[in-house]
Amino acid sequence: LTVLNAGRRYLKAEDLSGKVFVTSGLGGMSGAQAKAAVIAGCVGIIAEVDEAALLKRHKQGWLMEISNNLDHCIARLRYARKNKIALSLGYHGNVVDLWERLVYELDATGELLVDLGSDQTSCHNPFSGGYYPVQLGFEEGKQLLSTDPGKFRTLVQESLKRHVAAINRLADKGMFFWDYGNAFLLEAQRAGADVEKKGANKTEFRYPSYVQHIMG
């Protein structure tokens, strides 16, 4: 319902075939995103750093395909988008790399390859394993978290700034991004990322919340 209503509200579209939804997280509640994309008829690309979560969703049939190769992900995205095929593709890697690759494609080809975007990393708990920084692989990140949590925190905040910078670039070209209630925008703001709504107070963000703006 969230994906469908985001399409209705922001894309003015009842039919999401050929539309692309990019997000992250395949564990816990966020694991439903892949299934939701296919039910809605769109192309869902969901990034996940933990291979165990990816394999679980794939085995359950909630995720149609898995890849750790961004070239392959972009090729599959383009094909499914062009042919209006419902697809859920799990990218085994950091969502920041995925967002930055979409910015690269925009700069290189002028093509905006994503229509809807969100995030379901566990940003309510970003410094204890809920969000892994793009600068490190998953296992490296886990190691640093146990040996130097202060350094891990710094890298998470740097990663959040890169994360938001890529989203902002794509949103400026017409992608619609929303907050999924996971404290992503709050933690990005605390990290110094550009998420504040211009001309508003500091508690308002430039992107809407799914509760008030989409489900409401």
From TrEMBL:
Listed GO MF terms: urocanate hydratase activity
Highest rank taxon of the organism: Eukaryota
Coiled coil (residue ranges): none
InterPro entries in UniProt: Urocanase-like, Urocanase_central_sf, Urocanase_Rossmann-like, Urocanase_sf
Chain ranges of the Urocanase Rossmann-like domain: 2-214
SUPFAM superfamilies in the record: Urocanase (SSF111326)
A single GO BP: L-histidine catabolic process
The protein's name: HUTU hydratase
Annotated source species: Zapornia atra (Henderson crake)
